Amino acid sequence: MTLPALQQLLQDVGGVDAVGVEERVAKYATRSIKKESKVFGLKLAASMVDLTTLEGQDTPGKVASLCQKALHPHHLGETPRVAAVCVYPSMVRHAKPLVEGSGIKVASVATAFPSGQAPLATRLAEVRAAVQDGADEIDMVINRGAFLSGELNLVADEIAQVVEACGESTLKVILEVSELGTYDHIRAASFLAMRTIRPGDFIKTSTGKTSGNATLANNQVMLDAIRDHYLATGIEIGMKPAGGIKTAKQALHFLVAVKETLGDAWLTNSRYRFGASSLLNDLLRQLETQRTGSYQAPWSFTENAGSY
């Protein structure tokens, strides 16, 4: 396929009213969430975190620290455990036994994360290795160059082969929205991925390794695509914004977007995740503030192993 194929997909799925999207998400920040509703939202957000370390200096010891944070977010024990720990494929075998039986998933980035610039055989081998070592979830990156060049069959075929390599593991397809250029391209890429993956799989904004990551606006474009795909097919696709979400206040705004776009059925970590690490501590601080009435100092909480 060439560029006309991308133009055809854009026509097929419809364009995005950029001004309308940005006006809509600006209103999410005006919602007032207080008392019991705020505590509920903070705990819900904590339960949706994929606690992440993706650094070249990652070691088994650093991953063990991350897993302990996931299992015991705070010494008071009043915060739910996170949804998953997310690590490089080589670290899956170190993380898996540490969270076994806890309900916490082990997620692994794969397919030559974050660039995706490796031969397909290499990318698929990485997925299979991570799954063999125990990864419950795989976060893959699409071939953005192929997408922008209009080679849509190539992109879809590569996603399909990753789906097969995942076996029973959940797949999250990373669009890397900052490199797609426009809201229209984000919507089109969302549909291309959703038409290839399985019910219960996810689409994801970003790797967290580029200058532009998750925003309320590109999150909204993807939520709208998930809604429209669901209404057309009945297939439920999950969503994961990643990169740049660092505060509890931001997380609550994202949850308002989910509730108002997709409804309560998506307010669960089986359908919505946050790719983050520093976010968790701010959620913990805000929960303690709600419990004690006093704002907590940052050093009251252990540091996360990652900075995603």
From TrEMBL:
EC number annotated for this UniProt entry: 4.1.2.4
One biological process term in Gene Ontology: deoxyribonucleotide catabolic process
Entry-linked CDD domains: DeoC
Catalytic activity from the UniProt record: 2-deoxy-D-ribose 5-phosphate = D-glyceraldehyde 3-phosphate + acetaldehyde
Pathway terms, separated by semicolons: Carbohydrate degradation; 2-deoxy-D-ribose 1-phosphate degradation; D-glyceraldehyde 3-phosphate and acetaldehyde from 2-deoxy-alpha-D-ribose 1-phosphate: step 2/2
Keyword Lyase: yes
InterPro entries associated with the record: Aldolase_TIM (IPR013785), DeoC (IPR011343), DeoC/FbaB/LacD_aldolase (IPR002915)
GO molecular function: deoxyribose-phosphate aldolase activity
Keyword Cytoplasm annotated: no
Keywords, ordered alphabetically: Lyase, Schiff base
Annotated protein name in UniProt: Deoxyribose-phosphate aldolase
Organism, scientific name: Haloferula rosea
Gene: deoC
